[in-house]
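Instructor's aside before we start: the two examples that follow are unrelated to each other. I chose them only because their records fit on one page, so don't look for a connection. First example below.
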Amino acid sequence: MTIQAGSLPYLSGEFLDSLTISTSDMVDEIERQIVGQRRGEVWCAPKAVVLPGDNRYIMATLGVATEPRVLATKSLVVNPRNAERGLPTLNSLVTLLDAETGLPLAVVDGNWVTAKRTAGLSAVAARRLARADSACVAFIGCGVQARGHLEVLADLFPLREIRAFGRGKGNRDALCRLAEMRGLTAIPCDTAKEAIEPADIVVTTVTLVPQPAPFLDAHWLKAGAFLTTTDLALPWQAETMAIFDRIVIDDLVQEATMSKPMVRPELVAGDLTGLVSGDVPGRQSESERTTFAFRGMAVGDLALAGLAFARAKAVGALDV
């Protein structure tokens, strides 16, 4: 955490890691705030996206919670040219205001929130759509989001093995080392098909800029597999998506405002709020192929930023 006299508290990624917030804490908080939306205690706007046409992806989210009483806004820029500058491709920031008075409370490292909430949203869906005995996870894309998903899924499922495929050998090897540190077998793969075919859970986190051409075939997934795709399902061949027995997206209302759907609307069983609330059934048999496709929900950013703020207060780090 960084605080200067007369300035707003900044909760850095390093400080947030020191709070040792568990996977269960994060997933439970996201679920609690999702239920809060249904109860009229949490309000979120559809995410706003700006595409300047130069391969930048610029996005903002807005969410308001009753408990903790915070308003969270996140601003994010993805720019592939940042690599040439020695900077992360994605950078973001979350600002927290008191939801009653509008007074500023804190600024939070948005990269930490983005990584944690994305994996957390996948975990909320995986609790209901993946097989409880899932032991093998395939990663297509091996960067920050893949590492976040590995940590969460390893906490929730009896994993024994990961299979990794990505464009960058450095990221792939780093993901494999992380898995081995957790006692898992790590297998780097030369093709996406080789990674996917044996997997119980598949995670695709392919970068959105520039927009990827579809190169993944859903027929590669074995019976009983669960797919979570954080990349708008863009890497997946659209004509193969009908193979899934159940497709859940993050937010039906938000999706209706988008110019291009992630998957054909007639294939969608419902959204994450419906899944958590029981309106949309989870896995119905061990052989079902299921998927969660998502753009990202403001409620995830709200939940994780609010949880981090509450924990920082609880340890006496904030005088607010």
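Example two begins here.
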Amino acid sequence: MSAPGGAAPLLPAYGGRSLDMVLPAVAHRLGLPGFADPFDLPETSRYLVMLVDGLGSDLLEEHADLAPFLSRLATREPITCGVPSTTATSLTSLGTGLAPGRHGVTGFTSRIPGTNRRLNSLTWDDRVDPLEWQPHPTMLRRIHDAGVPVTVVNQARFAGSGLTAVSQHGVPFAGIENQWEQLDVCLDALEATDRAVVYTYEPRLDHVGHRQGCRSQEWRDTLVAVDADVRQLHEELPPGTTLVVTADHGMIDLPADDRFDVADHPRLLDDVEVLAGEARLRHLHVRPGAMHDVARRWRDAVGDRALVRTRDDGLEDWFGPLDGSVAERVGDVVVAALGDFGVFATRDFPSEIGMVGFHGSITGPEMRIPLLVATS
């Protein structure tokens, strides 16, 4: 099915040119056995992996003049993030080297199995143990345990969070308060030993994009600042360091008027026990036996503005093979928005209606992310 606005579906390339393979590729180039590198990274003794939240490949290409340093590095074909194309899922795929169907962070919000509660993967829930939710060892820990020092450099407020635990547990965490500290702490960690991996996170583009939109002047100004900061960081890297810059998803702006709100279509919630996910990709958990009726009602209501899939249709090409403990976190029916459509639910997710920029679905602008590589 083609999508309005040219935003055709793009399937994730798990195990290949996909975000989940970035750290396994680094491990391979460091000489650790059992890993592969589908990206042909340079073989150096130190790696700095930076994730720029919201830096989709399409956006970088469109605004190349505003980001000359990052654009100059964009010599490789884009890679894909996973489904949903959202921060928590992507950070966990990067951090574990696994597809969402295995690591279990299946969306911005997910049903907590056995309950009618939702887990917000960014704010978490004290009743949910992160290491039970995602029990696999992180790639960062596997690299660290193999004898290569690893440091996570991130905002201090993320230390000890549920998302940090599921995606980055098992290695030292260096908390920072601003971009200047980020530069200094990354350099200190890289220079401390002859071999090292440092992971760091840049949040500003995504924050501005959600509030003002990724076509706004504020977003463009932020891209200019991020480009300058990454360029400065690269210039100060110790010799023999490879900088790898990637992202967790792209972003699109949705029109503010005439948004589709399930509150205006109450029959769509018949037989739905839990509504989860986010506006661009909704998980519908339904009462037993109602899956196909719910899917039919939703297909009739949204038409070609979204893809509506059920468990019986198979969801492995979106989430990867679903582990038994993960399957119940994925909706019985999943609604992936196309074009400039979104499924809003103002009663359950009131903050979404005020946003401008969105991501989460399977369209190319949301799924394509850069892999930018430079060696000092």
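The mean pLDDT is 96.
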